[in-house]
Amino acid sequence: MAEQRGLQDGDRGRIRTPSNRAPSQSSVRAREMNPDGPYSRKDYLRDAALLNILLEDGEYRYTTPWISPTTNLLVHAVIRAMYSTQKHISDAQALRELLQRRGRPFGENDIRTLAARFQNGPTAEEEEERPHLGEPRRPFSSLRNNRQEAPPAERTFRSPNALPEMRYDLDPRERETRRERRSNTVEGIGAFRQPDRKRTFKADILSLDTSKMGISAYINQLNFLTRQYGEEQILANIVPGLMSRPDSDGCQWFNSLDYRTQGRLTYDLELWKTLLEQRFRRDRGAIMIEADNLRHSFREEDQLSLQAYIDKKIRLYNEVGNIDEDATARRILMGVDPALAKLVSLGHGDCTIQHIKEQLTAREFAARRDWQISRSELQSELDAMRTQLKSLEAQQTRSENRHF
After folding, report:
1. How many CB atoms are located within 10 Å of the residue 286 CB?
2. How far apart (Å, rounded) are the C-alpha atoms in residues 236 and 243?
C-alpha cells in the first residue's frame, strides 16, 4: 500500500527507480580489501597473482618495501603450486584489476592490508568446490539426455540421408581433458604449447667456467632454460650443476658463501642472477676496449670468420650493457673489412643488428671476390716493380764494370 501511495503521489524515483550511478572503483576495491569480509579461495589465488605482478613488474617497484619477505615467499609458493588453468585465470583477474586502477597508484595502507589478508588465508568456503557433508555429488552430464535411446541408423547406399553414428560412449571427463589440452595452446600460434614441467635436463649443463663462458651468456642460458623447464627445475639443478665441476669458478664461489646466503638461494632465482653478476662481471671499460679492438679481415679469415666476428662482437657489447642497438650495429659495421663495409648502406634513421647482419651476409661473397681481385692486381704490380728494380740493379752493375 505504501508503494501504491508513493506511486500515486508521484514519488516514483524514490520508491521504484534505483540509482544508475555505478560505484567508483576505489569504493569497490576498498570493499574487496575489507579484512572482515568473506575471503574465498578464488580471491586468495587472485591476490597471489596480483602480488606476484607487483613484485616482478618494474612499474610497481615502489610497492616492494611494503611487502614483507614472508609474504614474498608465500606468494612464490602459491604461484608454483597452481595448475596452469588456475594460473591463467588468476593472472587475468589480477591484470583486469590493475587496468581498473590505471592512473591511481597503490597506497601503503592498501598494500599492507592486501598482504595481511593474503597471509591470513581464505576465510570462506566455496559451495561449488566444497559441498556440505551429506549432499550427493552432482553426476556427470551425459550425451544421452536429450537424444533417443537407440543410436541412429547407419548411413548406407539405400539411406544416404541417415545421420552418422554418434559417439555415445564418450566419457565427459575425456571431453574435459581435451578442453584443458586445447586451452594450453596459445591463441594464434597453433604450433606453440606451454612447456611441460615434468621434463628434466642434465644438471652438468649449469656448470660455470668463466674462462669459456661469460657471465652474461650464462645468465641468458638460465633465462632460456627457465622458459623451457620452469623455475623450479632450475633451482633444483643449479647447485648440482655447479658442483659437477669442483675445479670451476662457479663451484668455488658457491662454497665460499655463508649458509644464510645459500639458504636464500634455494628459492630465489633472481638472487642467483644478481650475485653471479656481481661476482663474475668484468670491468665494463676493459670489455668495451676489447669489443672496439675486435676486427674482421679477409686476410685473417681462417682465424676469425665473419659470423664468428659478429657473434663475438654482439656478445661483448651485451656484456657491457646499456648500449643502444643502433650504436652496436654501427660499431659492428666499423670493424669489418673495408672491402665489405663499403658495400653496406645504412640508410636513414636507426639501424638494427638484424639489418646489418643480413646486409653483411648478403654482400660477403661479392666483397671477398673484390678483395681477391684487388689483391691479385696489387700482387702483379709488386711483381712488376720487383722485376723492374732487378733490371735496374743489373744495368747499374754492368755500367760499373765498364768503368773499371
Report:
1. 10
2. 13
Question: Are 265 and 289 found together in one domain?
Answer: no
Long-range contacts, 92-101 (Cβ 8 Å, 24+): 93/46, 93/49, 94/46, 94/49, 94/50, 94/52, 94/53, 95/53, 97/29, 97/46, 97/50, 98/50, 98/53, 100/25, 100/29, 101/25, 101/29
- For residue 322, give the C-alpha cell: 646499456
Of 284-298, 341-355, 356-370, least confident by mean pLDDT is 341-355
> Which grid coordinates are listed for 130?
566444497
Dist. CA 71–CA 116, nearest whole Å: 9
Angle between helices 172-183 and 84-100 (to 10 degrees): 50
Domain count, the chain: 3
Q: Which helix (H) or strand (E) holds 29?
A: helix 25-32
Which alpha helices (H) appear in 189-324, and where do they start and end? 215-229, 231-243, 249-255, 259-265, 269-280, 284-293, 306-320
User: Of 259, 281, 303, which residue is a domain's last?
Assistant: 281
Write out the three cell numbers for 23. 560505484
What pLDDT sits at residue 254? 92
**Domain identity same for 236 and 309:** no
145 domain residue, yes or no = no
Cell 675486435 locates to 294
Residue 113 lies in a domain: yes
How far is it, in rounded angstroms, from Cα 129 to Cα 43?
Answer: 14
Three cell numbers written together for 27: 569504493
CB 44 within 8 A of CB 118: yes
Q: 241 exposed, middle or buried (CB, 10 Å; 0-12, 13-18, 19+)?
A: buried
pTM over 0.85: no
**Residue (of 82, 100, 101) closest to 91 by Cα position:** 82
6: in domain: no
- How far is Cα of residue 348 from the mean position of the Cα atoms in its chain? 31
Closest CA to 119 of 61, 47, 194: 47
Segments forming the whole domain that contains residue 270: 203-281
Provide the grid cell at 135. Answer: 549432499
In a domain, 69, yes or no: yes
What are 200's three cell numbers? Answer: 628434466
Longest dimension (CA), the chain: 151
What's the pLDDT tens digit per position in 240-295? 999 998 898 899 999 999 988 988 998 899 999 889 988 888 778 888 898 889 99
299 in the same domain as 276: no
Copy the grid coordinates of residue 160: 544416404
Chain-centroid distance of CA 11 in Å reads 61
